[in-house]
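[step 3/7] fold_predict: job queued, chain A
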Amino acid sequence: MNLKQNLGKSTAWMSLAATGNSLISFIIFIVLSRILDAADIGLVAFALIVVEIGKLIVNAGISQAVVQHSAWDNTYASTCFYLNIGFSVIVTFVTMFIVTPLIASYYEAQAAPILKILSIIFFLEGLKAVHEGKLKREFSFKVIALRTIVGSLASGALGIYLAFKGFGVWALVWQQIVCQLLISYITISTAKWTPSFSYSGDYAQQILKFSTPLAGAQIIGSIGAKIFEMLVGILMGAAALGFFRVGGRALYILQDIVLKPLETTILSALSRIDQPQQQALSSIRIIRMNCYITFPIFFGAAAIGQEFITFAFGEKWAISGQVMTALAIGIAPHVISQQINAVLTASKNSHLVMLLAIITFIGNCICCVIAIPFGLIVTALAFSLRSYGTLFFSLHFFKRVYGFGFLAILKIAAPSFISSAMMFTALYAIKLFLTNQLPTIVALIILCFSGGLIYALCIRLIFKQETKIFIVETIDLAPAKLKPALGNLQRLIRLT
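[step 4/7] structure written:
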């Protein structure tokens, strides 16, 4: 199987895993949000922000080093393993004895015991990181997909059971821990690798030289992405964070389903391409395909945010619908920046990825401090506008490394962006004049169907040639079993 087929098949499996995992998690979150109030959601949300950042520190970019390394070396892998374990011990200690007391003092005392229990996840993450890297470098994404689905189903069933039994926020806490336990067990058992008692200081220096800038970029990027939520919680309270979190939750689910599969597989694929120019061309093709698929989804989410949140979570979360709309508008530039980060990482320019993360972090801090006094909606909108501003820097670094100008990337993204923006505008007009008096579920069905039809007409009638290129490249990349269906679609819309 060639590289393109590996990428297509792996992405399909990761899409399946992301969809299953995200839908299960989302159902649990809906159940809990209907039982709990905004302050309870805010307590768990803040603890999970710390956990997400801590997991990045534990991994420290070492899993990517395993994927990127030219050949499998047991000593190299064992060195990575012991580095991960060391980081997990340090992160657990710091979280338990430094971070938890700070959160109790400056945020909410009730969040402290939640974070202490969730700290178990750090050790589990360190234990499986190299095994996961081995599976990724071997393109064993089917295993990764199935373990995610199994973990989500089992832990999801437990979470719902505990929620109905009155465990409250602890239902979500134990769901997270059980899910991590199951995923770690399946990953370690299927990777078929046991670390040896070998450790190389030279390898450690090499690993840390590659992974430190990458880990720094991921950590700073994660903090930068979460700084809005952190400051909302600290400055506006746990209830405000709860509303903000619910508004963003559906978007996080969509990102897991639509963006994460390709993000997970693209590094493995691009790292196998030796020629920088070929890396860049492959990345541009992926950007085109990603834009065509993701832009309408997130612009559509922006259009139906109010109706969707009210339908799924209830009237008490109505303000979260406006937050969802404001946040969804900023996903488009994030899609392009994400792909540029992947190709920069694959080309061993992790220092540029770190610099981009720093720029994003600074931009988020500035926008957040300015926007918070004006309320949740303005704060969410500021986050989206920052995404458009920092895209300039991503394009600049891509040009610096590969020589492709700004217009080359923007031209590729323009057809799907313009079509999605037109769809968004049309859906708002439909909402104003047609769906106000309809039941929410009926309005959602009409809006979703109308959005898909409007976008399809735009790319078919206005951007026919660009759409033809997109379909041809998608068929080329797709797994063999999907090629006939895509070919039929191509003939159906007369783009052969």
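[step 5/7] annotate
DSSP finds 20 helices and no strands in the chain.
The radius of gyration is 22 Å.
exit 0
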